[in-house]
Design a protein that fits this description.
This protein is α/β, with parallel strands linked by helices. The chain is 16% helix and 38% strand.
């Protein structure tokens, strides 16, 4: 069976969920939705169709999620139509550019990498 999407859910660790939410809302010009449970706080990324199978959130737990700028997978967030739209807001929002807008190839578009306010290394991608 071939899956529609390789990723179904992602969680970005936070130390300060309100600070992280402000950062991502600023960089991507979005509004995150809160979902707080007894042992976990989440700020959900907006999705047009939750049944599409792809979603994610900022997450604050007591030690289960640990921010890192060098360990673990590298998550690429959609930044269409141009990664520079997001990268151009990173430093003013408190983050740091690690890799500026870079062409992957004419067929695969562009990418960039930043460090968020929580210390996570996150990438952005836009189509050609």
């Amino acid at each position: 069976m071939v899956q529609k999407n390789a990723v179904s859910w992602f969680e970005i660790p936070t130390l300060d969920i309100d600070r992280a939410a402000k950062f991502y809302e600023t960089v991507f010009s979005i509004k995150l939705s809160p979902l707080d449970l007894p042992n976990i706080k989440m700020r959900m990324f907006p999705v047009e169709d939750p049944a599409s199978g792809v979603g994610g959130a900022l997450v604050k737990t007591d030690g289960f999620h640990v921010p890192s700028d060098s360990l673990g997978p590298l998550l690429y967030l959609n930044s269409n139509p141009d990664v520079q739209n997001a990268l151009g807001k990173v430093e003013a929002a408190g983050g740091k550019i690690l890799v500026p807008k870079t062409q992957i190839s004419p067929e695969y578009g562009y990418m960039g990498v930043f460090k968020d306010t929580e210390g996570n290394r996150i990438a952005v991608h836009s189509a050609p």
